[in-house]
Design a protein that fits this description.
The protein is built from four helices and six strands, in the order αββααβββαβ. By secondary structure, it is of the alpha+beta class. The strands form two sheets. It has a four-stranded mixed sheet. The protein has a two-stranded antiparallel sheet with strand order 2-6. Strand 4 and strand 5 form a beta hairpin. It is globular.
Length: 150
């Protein structure tokens, strides 16, 4: 899957919904989004690019992709990446399950240093020569049912 723009990379996720996007950049500042009742009424559950918050973002951007932890706002051929705070995440869960998103002002956060994307060449190498191969532990991830997926 190493091709640029494919797989689970940020660019690959964005191109699934907006094929014309050429790069993903980190947000430099927080973004305040006003969600209206009209946005909530015309929105679709479990659709990252058609939820109430995405509809509200489309007033100022060419498109939006909103997941439970990351948001991408599209402007031309560029996607701006934001962190989705827990308060918005809870609203998204409520919306996906019950089609209930409360109108109001919501703040998308700029990614913290630990949440930022790193170019492949800048990632620190992890020495694995001391790690026994038989000690690999399989993690079991709990998947919450009835929610959006990218």
């Amino acid at each position: 899957m190493g091709a640029k723009g494919s797989g689970k990379s940020a660019l690959g996720i964005v191109r699934k919904y907006h094929p014309n996007v050429m790069k993903v950049v980190e947000a430099k500042a927080d973004m305040l989004i006003a969600v209206t009742a009209k946005d909530c009424k015309g929105a679709r559950s479990k659709k990252p690019n058609a939820c109430a918050l995405a509809k509200a973002c489309e007033r100022n951007f060419d498109g939006a992709i909103i997941s439970l932890s990351t948001a991408y706002l599209i402007k031309g051929d560029q996607a701006i990446r934001f962190h989705v705070p827990q308060a918005i995440s809870r609203e998204l869960v409520s919306f996906d399950r019950n089609h209930d998103f409360r109108p109001g002002e919501y703040k998308l956060k700029r990614p913290s240093k630990s949440f930022r994307l790193q170019p492949r060449g800048d990632r620190p190498l992890k020495p694995d020569r001391h790690k026994p191969h038989h000690a690999t532990i399989k993690r079991r991830n709990h998947k919450t049912a009835g929610l959006r997926a990218l």
